[in-house]
Design goal:
Blueprint lengths: L1 H39 L1 H4 L6 H15 L17 E3 L4 E2 L2 E2 L4 E3 L10 E5 L9 H13 L4 E5 L3 E6 L13 E6 L6 H11 L1 H5 L2 H8 L5 H5 L10 H23 L5 H23 L7 H4 L6 H16 L19 H11 L13 H11 L2 E5 L4 E5 L1 H6 L7 H9 L2 H5 L4 H4 L4 E3 L6 H20 L1 H7 L2 E3 L2 E3 L2 H11 E5 L2 H15 L5 H11 L11 E3 L18 H7 L4 H4 L1 H5 L3 E6 L11 H10 L9 H11 L1 E12 L9 H9 L3 E8 L10 E7 L4 E5 L5 E6 H6 L10 H11 L3 E2 L6 E3 L10 E2 L7 E5 L4 E2 L2 E2 L5 E3 L2 H8 L6 H5 L3 E5 L9 E4 L4 E2 L3 E4 L10 H9 L1 H11 L6 H5 L2 E2 L7 H26 L3 H25 L4 H7 L2
Parallel strand pairs: 5-6, 11-14, 11-16, 14-15, 16-17, 18-20, 25-31
Antiparallel strand pairs: 1-4, 2-3, 4-5, 6-7, 7-8, 9-10, 12-13, 17-19, 18-19, 20-21, 22-33, 23-32, 24-28, 25-28, 26-27, 29-30, 29-32
Length: 964
Amino acid sequence: MFAGNEAIRREHLNRNQKENMNHFEHAHKAVCQLVKDFQTHEKRYLSSDYSEAQARLDFIDKFFTALGWDVNHETQKNPYEQEVKVEKGVNVARAQKRADYAFCIAPNFRDAKFFVEAKKPAKALSNPDDYFQTARYGWNANTPLAVLTDFEEFHIIDCRFKPNIGTALKQKLKHYHYSEYADKEKFAEIYWLFSHEAVEGNSLEKHAETLKKPTGKAVQRGLFPGGYQPIDEAFLEEIDEIRKTLAKAFKKNCPEMMSNELTEAVQRTVDRLVFIRFLEDKLIEPENYLDNIGTSGQAWAEFIALCRKLDKKYNGVVFKETSIDLAGFEGPVDAEFRNICEELSRQNSPYDFNFIPIHILGSIYERFLGKEVHATAKRVDIEEKPEVRKAGGVYYTPQYIVRYIVENTIGKLIEGKTPEEIAKLRFADIACGSGSFLIGALELLLDYHHKYYQGHPEKAKKDGCYQKDGKWVLNIRQKQSILLNNIYGVDIDPQAIEVTQLSLALKMLEDETTATANDMQVLFHSAVLPDLTKNIVCGNSLIGTDILQGDLFALDKEEERKLNPMDFKSVFPGVMKNGGFDAVIGNPPYVNLVSIEENQRKYFQNKFKTCKNKSDLYSFFLENALRIVNRNYKLGYIIPHTWLATDSFSLLREKLLNNEAIESIAEMGFKVFKKVVVSTVVLISSNGNKNIKVLNNDFTQRFIIPTSIWTNDNNHIDLNWNKTKYKLFDKIKENTITLEKVLKFTRGIKTSNDDRFILSEKRNKDCKPIYRGKNIKAYQLNWGNEYVWYRPDLMKEKVGCLPHTKELFETTEKLVTQRVNSSMQLLVAYDDKQNYFLDTTNVSEYNSWDKKHSLKFIAGLLNSRLLNYWYCQKYKMPTIGLYELHSIPIKPIDFKNKTLRDLHDNIVKYVDQMIDGKKQLNAAKTEADKNYYQQKCQSLDNQIDKLVYELYGLTDEEIKVVEG
């Protein structure tokens, strides 16, 4: 049977390889004919009167058609589902603002995989202007490679680097003369990079990974002054620098401005500058305004006059008149503001907002929002916001996850519906940040409407659509209605609200032109942008105005303003009166309950039914989202995986499972957020799910499980569930007690790494050797030469918690475990030296030990392969919490039973030898000694594992499962 399957698989692979070669041969034959045609009339094609448009029609279109692309849209008729976008060429102010070709892969028709810039053959391609222009397209769109071609030559350009006109020619990776296309090996290099089948297999990304990043001498010689930097990182750096310069320029002219005023003024100014550049690059405004600001010598005055002019046309939050627009406001130092405008102008900047996807702008702004201006009487600095520091950074959700959540919530709800039916639906993100999920929602809604109207032309005409390039297009008023009817957002940060409104405005205007924007005013007597103040609201999604009632939470005005309490019924009365939102989506904040101020913590403990122990804000966002949705809702969140198994989230699991509210869970792992170590899952929730889909991180299905199985397993959710493992779990638990009935643990000393308490030398009698979690391995302690100055009175005052009494550490013997490790492994050491331990460890309590069982016996069990298997399979958490540790099943020893007593004593004997062996291994000087003691420790480990298997009664087959 296996051999037959293998033969079928090989035959299938061979067939695919043959098909691929057939495609290649067909493509090469077609291109060879083009080479002959060009060669025959080369003189004519190289003449100055042979235009770019003719070259595209005669050769370049046919070249990429041969590579498998539907350049002429012979099969992809739907204008909204075409993989090749061909521009006719639009020049504004002597600068082309569109790439000639953009190539995508279905079903993602928005994000280009690569661009092609076409020229006429008479012009030499190796010039800085054309290289800079081509690289600019690719870099702004975050695509690694681009092509510059006139058919006579084919240049591959590296777009990973910030474009610089002075070094643009250095970005050439390779070039080919048309005569080389006839050479199969040369043509294969092009084909397996840029053909449809190659690009579909991520050829460009794979090739880019093999390219070296410039380092050392290349950077020092200035060959890559922009550095290897994706568009989001480069632009974030730029606007961070603009913010700092602008804040200082404001402060110089207006020294009375302090932190909040400066933050708001700088944010508003930056938003306007970005929006103006967007209007310029999208050709919605025909003038390059930023190039000309300051020509009269009064840059700020000209900027404000321009903002007032644009406000009349566009409305919305961006140009709304505020204190910075008032006549008496001096603004920043004029010369410095003029410099900012010059640097950001199209003429001088490498950025092109026509190509930067809106979601990338969102990712930039999300991180931008993590900082604020901090001002004193004399200084201005940019600092991380306190809540960002608490949360460990800004969690910007990658676009593929946004798209998945939006499609599986909002996408499912609008499926098959008419525009009139969709207009009645309400979708929200109640922790919207820069608006990335709402941008995704709006994009999906606009795409759906466009596709709907292509299939219903009479309806399209009746509803006000117009035709452009053979397709029905929504007018601005229709887009406004979709935005106002369907999209809602809440965030506690006023800057975030402004940025979300800005982002949605950019998305709405993405495909507009000067003509359509002007038509909005002329035909409808209306501003281009809708008023979103009732849709996108600044408030606290978790704290209602009930916190202001009574004496329990007496707040002063500053505290109240900071908390910004809000009630959904008051802010969204129409939505809540009609039963609530149809979908809630997003990436809520991840902040542990212990990190929250006491008055808020008490409020959450009173308000949220799922609050328990060390719960988290994301749990409360999830509970609140379920409160504000209607019965036919869809909810999509990306959240940490900690809620799946830990005790602190048992009430949340109970709520979701008992209400059959889990539709699917996708395990995303640790790699979703850059520079942030947090394992996540994507949860899709809806009503009435008898079965739950468990998905991999590429959203393929892992298995389907009845909800009742996890409900019956104490609401423990295991994303690697299978019958074999659970039979083994049942076997392991037979005749056991939980660890806490034999030995209890507590966390070590909390010092917050305060330099006053953690020392590198012993200064007085109160200094004790201290160990961190990283100093603990299985059966060994590796001291890091640190001491703790043990002063409970000072620690309580400075650190905010009472450290443990000396008895905990100075008991004759104890066990200690690492509390956090990425391998999620139980690492337990034995200590009889009265050492002290920090709170990155769990320490056994001196008065909780069942003295009949040796601590070394317990250490052997906890370090064993069997109990590590049980623990890692059950919890999959880098943090070894006390609840999880205490729940480990321990086989108690009946010391009257000689067999069990011997097992206990033998485990203790081998653990003794293991502790000694680890010490000898650490002390070994030669490789021979190291190898000997490593082998000895491994042998002892195997002996302990064998005894533990015997103690728990495992069969050979069950041992094989444990050992993988």
